[in-house]
Amino acid sequence: PALRRLSHYLLSHYQKGIRPVRDWRTTTNVAIDLMVYAILSVDEKNQVLTTYIWYRQHWTDEFLQWDPAHFDNLTQISLPAESIWVPDILINEFVDVGRSPHIPYVYVGHHGEVQNLKPIQVMTACSLDIYNFPFDVQNCSLTFTSWLHHIRDINLSLWRQPELIKFDRSVFMNQGEWELLYVLSHLQEFSVKSSDSYAEMKFYVVIRRRPLFYTVSLLLPSIFLMVMDIVGFYLPPNSGERVSFKITLLLGYSVFLIIVSDTLPATAVGTPLIGIYFVVCMALLVISLMETILIVRLVHKQDLQPHVPEWVKRLLLEQATVLLCIRDRTKFSQSRTQSSDISRQVENNDSTAKLNPYGCEDPRECDALGGARPVPPFPGPSEGSPLMLGVLREITAIRQFLEKREEFRDVAREWLQVGYVLDVLLFRAYLAAVLAYSITLGTLWSVWRDA
């Protein structure tokens, strides 16, 4: 009976359309509070944040006061929210009507203190910065203000101290993709074109993405493919397997990018750094394939391939081997001196054969044999000249063919040495570029994560 009598006493002559003050110059102070319960979704493309919050309001209604002694010492009663005056406080960033449960009652104290507690699913516009994805930190604001009443009618304040609100994770569900760092609060006045000022209470919800899933599913496969590309440089440059291996890696990376394209966040104003990382990795794979094609072209054996220019020999086979600290650089000089010795020996043999028609290596030996040389068993010059000339022509052709083939082998060997040194040089430059790029990205992501 006391509840019924009190409810009838309070609401019988209550007018909910009027601000509940006895003097119109009195400002209604509304204290608000916010606790984040869950981060439901973050839509980077549409720049929308969906959160579930516990929202509380507290104000004084001068027309809802009574003496507890007259009503069985009742100091608090719940009344329908539709039957009393409720401040028109909204969130400025609202972009859609949230699916929030309807709470039909509010608590009223005997001094007129009204407590309105309700959970709200909030869909708000937020400027999301995805450049640091997946190590990004988002700062989204929830601005509470009266849509109609200026600051002289309704003023806002905090229910609790800012320090208590900042690190309050007592009701936050900490099992999702996003982690709540803190909630900042700030009270300010807002005016439009020198009109009346409005009180605004801003809550900055700062959240951080957990990067473990994206690190495993995006970064590690890309790193593995780049490592395999670096290992592919150890295949022999004169074999065709390296080209097919590099092409297979490039095709595999293209398929990988197609698969992860749906995972990467997309906005109309920017691209995440990880997307740039994937593009640069693809470019590095293309450069690696081009380098392999160049090396295979140099070391490929061709009959019409010219000799290696002298400046290339000095630059690559002498100076570059010392600069790159190639262990077997002595073989290059040995092969070059060996080829020059072979050509010099061939010239000496030609001159010796012309000077010594009897095939003697020592002239004194030829002098000793000059007086008592045996008569050749062949017929005379007039009878055997055509046969001997034919045999000599065949022997000369065979000798020229062997010399030409040896010359081709020397040329191919020189180009193989040039290709080997150039391959080592380009591989180390490529490795240095990959390491510098990886260290830079790792440092940036580490700094962002720690910050």
Describe it:
The chain is an alpha+beta fold and 451 residues long. The protein has two domains: 2-209, Distorted Sandwich (Acetylcholine Binding Protein, Chain: A); 212-327 and 395-450, no CATH class. Helix content is 45%, strand content 22%. The chain contains nine helices and eleven strands. Strands 1, 2, 3, 5, 6, 7 and 9 form a seven-stranded mixed sheet that branches. α3 packs antiparallel against α4. It is rod-shaped, with a radius of gyration of 45 Å. The two termini are 60 Å apart. Residues 332-383 have low confidence and may be disordered.
Helix fraction bin: 40-55%
The arrangement of helices and strands along the chain is: HEEEEEEEEEHEEHHHHHHH
> What is the CATH architecture assignment of the largest domain?
Distorted Sandwich
Number of domains: 2
Number of strands: 11
- Could you say which overall geometry the principal axes of the C-alpha atoms support? rod-shaped
Poorly predicted parts: 332-383
Helical element count? 9
The top level CATH class name of the largest domain: Mainly Beta
> How far is the first residue's CA from the last residue's CA?
60 Å
The main sheet comes to:
7 strands, mixed
**Taking all residues together, what is the mean pLDDT?**
80
Strand content: 15-25%
Oligomer kind: single chain
Backbone CA Rg = 45 Å
CATH superfamily of the largest domain: Neurotransmitter-gated ion-channel ligand-binding domain
Family: Belongs to the ligand-gated ion channel (TC 1.A.9) family. 5-hydroxytryptamine receptor (TC 1.A.9.2) subfamily. HTR3A sub-subfamily.
Transmembrane segments: 212-235, 247-268, 274-296, 425-448
Protein name: 5-hydroxytryptamine receptor 3A
Domain Neurotransmitter-gated ion-channel ligand-binding: 4-211
